[in-house]
């Protein structure tokens, strides 16, 4: 009996000692106050420290930490509503026979007004407040081509908004609402984010009734590229639940800081499957500042094509170990060519930082302001060379107003774009510049019935040569309904004329 009490005493003593030991272990979860102010065109969206450490000794403390985190970030999230008016064309049975039968059946040549109808398409997304005076960061695809934009704030106020600038290459946009006193979010350092960290996503999935939904998960991976969502990709992958309507909302770390803009999900069913993607806050911040200051994003340009170096390429180049990125085409008179970069060079470092793959180099150059001189460390024929390159601005086609593009496309029945190297590759065309490409065509349009097709190269309009979108617009933009459009196009190496009344 005495031995039994001795064992019981030892067990109780062990429990007591363990409780005392663990009571002195603190697991801290920092929770931040909101602390940035992006004033009009100052754009210093830096979060100040101000983080208080909250010790966690129980599940209740952990629960309270997440509650405070959600309460801190949620007021900075808005729901974005968009409206776009489109013309819906009703196809007459006579259209199936083509224009030669119009006169026979006494069908008016212009039936757009009678057979057409206008429809308002409504969209929904999310956004995050980055300044107290109404600047809001979101995705480009949330507001692209919208005729009307308005937001609903945390206080449930409905406020009209307008686009400040859009960047399709990163799928980011900034809109401005005429409202004061909004609560901006702290912007964190996405480069410091680690795989496995806790994050929360906030947005309005599936509808307005689910506004400011909070979901929790971890950072599943960083640096995801080649997803096919944007030209410049460096996505944070997370398993925090993201659904349609979450686009443009914030991904927040446990400091209450913005570390990403939720953009898309990978799904076989269209629903949440645990793979979501967010644009890193460091990339989003640079794009945001440029859009607010200039209304557009300017990017650095090196003037080369590059590819990753795998083991086989490394063997062929006698490069051991495999590293860097391989230079393919060097654009004539481009920055790299002027600095002495040659085809076959392997870029192994830029400004002293090792280059691991093409995505890293491409994004790094793009984020560097034009006019900046960078130092390249290249491997050439067994020797390492140091080259200084002064970056130029990334060239691109001249942009025209969205409204103007939509108006001319609706009038002509087809859309065009300058032929870039990317489009030439997509349509398997040998030319890479100096032409205008038909990128889309309405099957019910007169242009389609005349024989024009997507992928055709337009060489002249009304007997005037065109090689840029600006030249095309100068000629085609002056025609009006009922006028004759006379096109010379190139298709599979053959030149063909098409003429039709628009």
Map the helices and strands.
Blueprint: H1 2-22, E1 27-32, E2 51-56, H2 59-73, E3 77-89, H3 112-115, E4 116-129, E5 135-138, H4 140-143, E6 148-152, E7 158-167, E8 172-177, E9 186-187, E10 198-203, E11 213-224, E12 235-238, E13 250-253, E14 257-265, E15 276-280, H5 281-294, E16 300-301, E17 304-308, H6 311-317, E18 325-330, H7 335-339, E19 346-350, E20 353-354, H8 358-367, E21 373-380, E22 383-390, E23 392-393, H9 402-412, E24 414-418, H10 421-426, E25 436-441, H11 446-450, E26 457-461, E27 464-465, H12 469-476, E28 484-491, E29 494-501
Parallel strand pairs: 9-14
Antiparallel strand pairs: 1-2, 3-4, 3-6, 4-5, 5-8, 6-7, 7-8, 10-11, 10-13, 11-12, 12-15, 13-14, 14-15, 16-23, 17-18, 18-19, 19-20, 19-21, 21-22, 24-25, 25-26, 26-27, 26-28, 28-29
Protein name: Protease Do
InterPro entries: PDZ, PDZ_6, PDZ_sf, Pept_S1C_Do, Peptidase_S1_PA, Peptidase_S1C
Binding site for substrate: 83, 141, 171, 245-247
Count every helix, treating DSSP H or I runs of 4 or more residues as helices. 12
Spans with pLDDT under 50 lasting ≥5 residues?
15-52, 94-114, 397-404
Number of strands: 29
Major sheet strand order? 3-4-5-8-7-6
Which percent range fits the helix content? 10-25%
CATH topology of one domain: Pdz3 Domain
Rg measurement, Å: 29 Å
What structural class is derived from the secondary structure elements? alpha+beta
* Second rung of CATH, namely the architecture of one domain: Roll
Strand content: 35-45%
């Amino acid at each position: 009996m005495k031995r039994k009490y001795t064992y019981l005493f030892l067990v109780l003593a062990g429990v007591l000692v363990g409780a005392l030991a663990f009571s002195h272990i603190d697991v801290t979860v920092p929770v931040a106050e909101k602390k940035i102010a992006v004033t009009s065109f100052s754009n210093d969206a830096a979060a100040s420290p101000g983080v208080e450490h909250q010790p966690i000794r129980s599940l209740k403390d952990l629960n309270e930490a997440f509650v405070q985190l959600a309460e801190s970030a949620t007021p900075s999230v808005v729901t974005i509503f968009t409206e776009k008016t489109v013309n819906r064309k009703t196809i007459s049975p006579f259209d199936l026979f083509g224009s030669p039968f119009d006169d026979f059946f006494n069908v008016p040549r212009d039936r757009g007004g009678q057979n057409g109808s206008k429809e308002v398409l409504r969209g929904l997304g999310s956004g995050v407040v980055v300044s107290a005076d109404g600047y809001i960061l979101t995705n480009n695809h949330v507001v692209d081509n919208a005729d009307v934009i308005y937001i609903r704030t945390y206080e449930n106020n409905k406020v009209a908004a307008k686009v400040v600038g859009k960047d399709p290459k990163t799928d980011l946009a900034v809109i401005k609402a005429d409202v004061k006193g909004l609560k901006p979010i702290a912007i964190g350092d996405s480069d410091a984010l680690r795989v496995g960290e806790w994050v929360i996503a906030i947005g309005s999935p599936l509808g307005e009734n689910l506004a400011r939904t909070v979901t929790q998960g971890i950072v599943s991976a960083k640096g995801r590229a080649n997803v096919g969502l944007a030209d410049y990709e460096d996505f944070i992958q997370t398993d925090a639940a993201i659904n349609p309507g979450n686009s443009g909302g914030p991904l927040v770390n446990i400091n209450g800081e913005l570390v990403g803009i939720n953009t898309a999900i990978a799904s076989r069913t269209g629903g949440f499957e645990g793979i979501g993607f967010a644009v890193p806050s460091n990339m989003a911040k640079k794009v945001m500042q440029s859009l607010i200051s200039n209304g557009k994003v300017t990017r650095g340009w090196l003037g080369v094509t590059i590819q990753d170096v795998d083991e086989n390429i490394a063997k062929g180049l006698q490069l051991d170990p495999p590293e860097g990125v391989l230079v393919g085409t060097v654009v004539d008179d481009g920055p790299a060519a002027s600095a002495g970069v040659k085809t076959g060079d392997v870029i192994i470092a830029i400004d002293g930082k090792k280059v691991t793959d093409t995505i890293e180099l491409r994004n790094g150059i793009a984020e560097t302001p034009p006019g900046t001189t960078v130092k390249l460390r290249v491997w050439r024929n067994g020797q390492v060379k140091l080259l200084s390159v002064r970056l130029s601005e990334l060239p691109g086609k001249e942009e025209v107003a969205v409204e103007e593009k939509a108006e001319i496309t609706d009038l002509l029945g087809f859309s065009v774009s300058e032929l870039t190297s990317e489009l030439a590759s997509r349509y398997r065309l040998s030319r890479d510049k100096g032409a205008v490409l038909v990128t889309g065509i309405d099957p019910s349009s007169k242009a389609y019935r005349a024989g024009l097709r997507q992928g055709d190269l337009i060489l002249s309009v009304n007997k005037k040569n065109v090689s840029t979108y600006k030249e095309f617009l100068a000629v085609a933009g002056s025609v009006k309904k009922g006028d004759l459009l006379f096109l010379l196009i190139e298709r599979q190496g053959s030149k063909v004329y098409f003429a039709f009344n628009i």
